[in-house]
Amino acid sequence: MLRSITKSSLASSNSILKSSILLNSFKSSCLIKRFLSSSSSLASNQSPPAQDVFLSSNNANYIDQMYSAWLADPSSVHISWNAYFKNLDSGLPASKAFQTPPNLFPLGSGNIGVANITPPTDKPMNEDVITHLKVQLLCRAYEVRGHQAANLDPLNISFGTHNKPAELNLDYYGFTENDLDKLITLGPGILPRFSNNSNKGQMKLRDIISSLESLYCNSYGLEYIHISSREQCDWLRERIQVPTPFHYSNDQKRQILDRLIWATSFESFLSTKFPNDKRFGLEGEESVVVGMKSLIDKAVTFGAEDVVIGMAHRGRLNVLSNVVRKPNESIFSEFTGSKKDDEGSGDVKYHLGMNYQRPTVSGKHVNLSVVANPSHLEAEDPVVLGRTRAIQHYKNDIGTFNKALGVLCHGDSAFAGQGVVYESIGLTALPAYTTGGTIHIIINNQIGFTTDPRFARSTPYPSDLAKSINAPIFHVNADDVESVVFICDLATEWRSTFHTDVIIDVVGYRKHGHNETDQPFFTQPKMYEAIAKKESVIDIYCKKLIKDGTFTQEDIDEHKKWVWGLLEDSFARSKEYKPTAREWLTTPWEGFKSPKELAEEILPHFPTGLPTETLKHIGNTISSWPEGFEVHGNLKRILKNRKKSLDTGEGIDWSTGEALAFGSLLLEGYHVRVSGQDVERGTFSQRHAVLHDQKTEKTYTPLKNLDEKQADFVISNSSLSEYGVMGFEYGYSLTSPDALVVWEAQFGDFANTAQVIVDQFISSAESKWKQRSGIVLSLPHGYDGQGPEHSSGRLERYLQMCSEDSRHFPSPKKLERQHQDCNMQVIYPTTPANIFHALRRNMHRQFRKPLIIFFSKNLLRHKLARSKIDEFLEGSSFKLIIEEEVPNKQDIKRVVLSSGQVYAQLYAKREALKNTNTTFIKVEQINPFPFAQLRDAFDSYPALEEIVWCQEEPLNMGAWSFVSPRLNTTLAETQNYKSFKIRYCGRDPSASVAAGSKKMHIAEEEAFLNDVFNTSN
């Protein structure tokens, strides 16, 4: 019964029955309140709360349910409750109907134990009832705290029995050795699944304790009582609280042994052949490989067709070899440094990814992919989730979540210390981001580089973070390989059943230092003294199998020899092995030409304009709503203006241009996904992609209603995360080249907190790992006098990562291949037509490149940032630069180059000065740099006296440092301006991105505008 009335169980009730008379009767039952308080405090390890925990709707709900159960069957509740309900039903008042239970936590006592249970003086309580209640508390204590006494640590220095909680000791309950042979009636709260005909529903206390020790304090420990769902807790109890939670046949043991031999032999082989190389080996945690293979087999039986794996450094090579089945000769060739046959910078072997289809024991095949990951530890977490979600989308698996599964392997220090872990698991239940649960495996070495756990985290376990999402946490000793397999299978069944995250904390050790060339005794002498004396997991398991009579030593030695021989064969073949980049790919994009295949091709230019009818159809759809749907009054005006601009062909604004691009791609069969904080409405109230009924709060998404055969459009506000969500969208973009995936920052500078994703994945993944992506980053940027925050999206950072050479003017062939060869595109467009073409261009090429869009908040509604419908029509395309129309170029003495919204300030200044000898060229694309277009533009002006670059950012920021050498290279190729020097006009160098006051902002702006035109105030 105690298990049923804990705080967590009460909170999980789903309906509240209104039995006010019964509740009021219980209000006077003070000692029942104490009883409830005591069980609640036992679950939380706190003193009994002073407040009246009983008088809540959840508790009333529980009592109502008990009362209903009693009405149906009096024997279904404990005898003390049966007596109470019977007396209450006969009309007795609560004070007489209720027989007070013992005062479990005596008031005024500092001892929170239950040893001194004293029956009330008016009526002595039945001794059997007291014993039953105490045993219930004991059982509950094992459920809650048993993991703290489990044999989890192979080294026996961090976790285990030496930390056994007081609640698990006999004297805590007043039991003595003499009580151990007492027969206890099983039932509610006391191992109900142990009741059978042989014991007639009774067990000795010593046997109950022995069973609890076996269930909760063996080689694994379970944390699940924090989960608020009673259904989920009971599901676990049904699988855990049974006499034998798992038992493996000889054939199953043979498979476990085989997998363990491969995992341990692989590490030993690498150690023998490459003793001086870093490999971040898995020694001390090899059972993880066995558990992962079993996990995958189990997942396939539940319908999984794809498993996406995020793998830490440690053990990556072993997982690639033995789980994903990357050819061993390929891995060995990477150690010997054999030259790859593809271009690119490459990466160290323990960062590489892989994709492979392999058979499983069920006879079915499964697609396995390991996401490439840099040294930023947990950076791949959201990438794995995004890729998994994309697979589910393309397999129509959203909602069922059976066909694709994400598995994340973490280091213990990284899981506890890296913020992106929380940003990633925080997506688990969000409708547009959930993947139906991720299985997390913590490879717990009990150390982070040289840092002890006590200095690396503020919680007992590295996994405690997962309690925030109600995930069950399974701790398991890495030296007990069968328990590791059982826990991995249990976690897989949990995920398949409840579609929520689950954590497996495999507690082991790291045989060597941080890497194999490190000396760990410098900092952890005690730990490594214990490791030096330890038996390996393979020796431990072999001894167990031999002792059980499952196999002989000869059987085992023969199999080990056979595995080693196969590794030797692979090593011999590795010397002639020629790896290909395909081996590295997380996803190969079948049917889409590889960069190598396109290397010698000059790709055609695809105009991205559309027929008028298509544009107007999209325009009508995005500016209308269903009949009976109540749109906000101000929004009606905005939508009507959108329709009017398309009907008249004049004044099309930025958001309309963007929507036309999305809509046209959807009609052409491209999946479009837009994600980020506030993207549905738009941070600046500009997009309104999702309409909200003002009366019913229903929503309507116009771009989902273009045509019955259109591709899927997803737009969703994200959690307040950048690192996690940008990584998720990057992962999503890897799965198919036919998806336009856009991540938009609330403000451009917010992308700073996702800089790892930009640095390590978006800007460099194709060069390092040959992994292509067409992800779009949409970053608001522009100086409006609002202070240092939210002015700058840090344009200079993205440009610094661009790989194009500034020293040489490209040859004609290289000019043709500029976009094909670049690592990413950076644009700062100023017209709605150009954003329309930029988005469509990204999908209409035969290759994909990341696209970084800086867009101006100021230009979203500015009269100078309007386009005509002609600029969207067939034959039109993206403009790398935009020149003004000049009646007579002979009269132009000054060309001012700029990018983005500063053009509007320049235009206004020129109008105020009535200047007629200055023209502007807007550089809409900064990388790849428009060398040829600017060269030709300069030469079209015969009488220039100066060329100016103007930007609103400080000198040390913005595009200046990037464009300056490229402009000099361009001028050297002109006919008339080879000796010209570009003059800079903008803010002075600054530590802060922008001024902190509007007045200072205006003064700085006026100063550089005067500088452009050589004027004074």
TrEMBL record:
Record flagged with keyword Metal-binding: yes
Transketolase-like pyrimidine-binding domain: residues covered: 652-862
Domain of life: Eukaryota
Gene Ontology MF term list: metal ion binding; oxoglutarate dehydrogenase (succinyl-transferring) activity; thiamine pyrophosphate binding
Catalytic activity: N(6)-[(R)-lipoyl]-L-lysyl-[protein] + 2-oxoglutarate + H(+) = N(6)-[(R)-S(8)-succinyldihydrolipoyl]-L-lysyl-[protein] + CO2
Key words of the record: Magnesium, Metal-binding, Mitochondrion, Oxidoreductase, Thiamine pyrophosphate, Transit peptide, Tricarboxylic acid cycle
Keyword Acetylation: no
Enzyme Commission no: 1.2.4.2
Cofactor requirements of the protein: Mg(2+); thiamine diphosphate
SMART domains, per database record: Transket_pyr (SM00861)
A Gene Ontology biological process term: 2-oxoglutarate metabolic process
This protein's name: 2-oxoglutarate dehydrogenase, mitochondrial
Annotated source species: Ascoidea rubescens DSM 1968
